[in-house]
Fold:
Amino acid sequence: MFIKIRTQLIYFFAALRFFTRLPVPAWVGHSQDQLNHAARYFPLVGVLVGLIAAATTLVAALVLPVSVAVVLGMAASVLATGAFHEDGFADACDGFGGGWDKAQVLSIMKDSRVGSYATIGVALLLLAKWNALVEIDATSDTLTLGLTLIAAHAVSRLAATSLIFTLDYVREDATAKAKPLAVRMAPHELFIAALTGLAPCILLPASHLLAALVAVALCTWLAARYFIHRIGGYTGDCLGATQQIAELAFYLGLLCSFT
Structure:
C-alpha cells in the first residue's frame, strides 16, 4: 500500500513540476515513466493553481477594489504556471491563424516568435477573463468568485486532459514540449483526472454549475473537432489553448446562469 501511495505521489509531483514552477521534493527524481503517467493529475494541479489565484484575489479584495484584486489573482496564477498554458494558446493562435496546411500550422506553432494573432488573441482572452470574473463578483459575492477560480482551473485542465484520452498526438519530433504526455491515457487514469477535476465543483451552487459545465463541454468538443479537421489531432499547444478556452467558458457559463 505504501509503495502504491508513493508511486501516485511521484506521478502528482511530476505533473506539478511539468505544468507549474512550484517546487517539488528532491526525492521525486525524474524519468520518462513519471511523465507518461502524470496527466492523470493535471486537474489536481489546477486545483492548486486555482487555490493560489483564489487566495490572492480574496486577500487583495480586503484592501483593494475587486477589479484590481482580480488582476492580481490572475497574475498569481500566471506566475505559478510560468504562463505555460497562455503560451500554448498564443502559439495555437499564430499556428492556426497563419498556417494553411498541417505542416505550416505545426511549424508556426513551434516557432518561439510571437505574431499578431498571438498578441491579439492573448489580449482578448485576458480581457474577457477579467471582465467575466469582475461580473461574477458583482452578481454574486467575493467568496463565490474565489470558489469559481478553483473550480474553473480544475475543470479546464480536465477538459485539456480529455484530448489526450480521445485524440492522437500529431508531432513526430522528440523535442516537442508535450511529447512526454503524448500517450493515450488508460480509462482509470481519466477517471482519476475526472474525479479531481470535478471535485471542486461541489463548492458551487448546483443550480448555476450546470451551465458552466455545459459551456466547457461544448467548447472542448468544438476545439477537438477543429484540431482534428486542421491537423488530425493535438499538440501540447492545443492542450494549452483548450485549457484557456475552457477556463473562460466556465466563467461565461456561470455568469450566464447568474444573469
User: Anything to note?
Assistant: The chain has a mean pLDDT of 91. Residues 2-11+37-258 form one domain.
